[in-house]
Design brief:
This protein is about 45% helix and about 20% strand.
Length: about 250
């Protein structure tokens, strides 16, 4: 006798994993406590991006014995964007999103970020307010982040103040076509999906949160190289969009 399929969860949370050994287990426990306290059905989707530490081993342990947890393990490193995109396309929930599992923007903000979606928005993201740092590295990261924001607002005509945040949630059926149209595999994916969502007419709300840098976490962000890669990604994205518009105009002319 066949059994009825399990109904989809209300919420799918994608956890992109790369070099997360130091905090992954504790952060997932914290995330689970938050989700259980919200009273929503949910699933966790781990996408492990070929870490060289014990992240993959920890993910296997975290998934074992849990029917609402799934995992994918990459054979080679794909990058932030490709990893999150894969998780979104696997999701079953009415709402799908991701948050950086270092919890520098804490999962306690999940109810606040989901509230606009419950009220009818197509998506919501965290707008990060930086808690003052105490080291030159923290200060440099803050300066670069504000520089990204200024550059993005200068180059792109979108209403968002913080597109790079790793804390984004959307109504799944409204964001899937946008996700499929993304092409960036690296960090610029966070900005790309916001641009494409805006162009698709989706209403995405930014929710104020606090960003607190973890002193115990070795960052995977390479500040100067990633800054250069971000500039290159902006240039390539603009060129690609211009080529697409020219091709569309040419097709209309026949």
């Amino acid at each position: 006798m066949s059994h009825p399929a399990e109904p989809p969860p209300e919420l799918s949370v994608v956890i992109a994993c790369y070099m997360e050994e130091s905090h992954l287990t504790d952060s997932v426990a914290e995330l689970t406590r938050t989700l259980d306290g919200m009273g929503r059905s949910y699933e966790l989707i781990f996408v492990e991006d070929k870490s060289t530490d014990r992240t993959a081993e920890l993910v296997r342990a975290l998934v074992a014995g849990h029917s609402n947890r799934r995992a994918v393990f990459h054979d080679q490193n794909v990058g932030r964007g490709g990893t999150v995109r894969e998780g979104f396309l696997m999701a079953r929930g009415r709402v799908v999103g991701f948050l950086d599992i270092d919890l520098e923007v804490h999962c306690k903000y999940l109810p606040d970020v989901l509230a606009p979606i419950d009220a009818g928005a197509d998506g919501a993201t965290a707008f990060r307010g930086y808690v003052p740092g105490i080291t030159p590295n923290h200060l440099l990261r803050k300066v670069l982040s504000h520089g990204y924001r200024w550059l993005f607002r200068t180059v792109f005509d979108v209403p968002f103040r913080d597109t790079e945040t790793g804390f984004k949630f959307f109504v799944r059926e409204r964001i899937l076509d946008v996700v499929r149209n993304t092409q960036e595999d690296g960090w610029f994916w966070d900005s790309e999906i916001m641009i494409l969502a805006h162009e698709a007419g989706l209403k995405v709300v930014e929710v104020p949160t606090s960003f607190v840098r973890r002193a115990d976490k070795a960052t995977t962000v390479r500040m100067f190289r990633d800054s250069w890669d971000y500039l290159v990604a902006i240039r390539n994205f603009r060129r690609r969009r211009q080529e697409q518009r020219r091709a569309a105009a040419s097709a209309v002319r026949g």
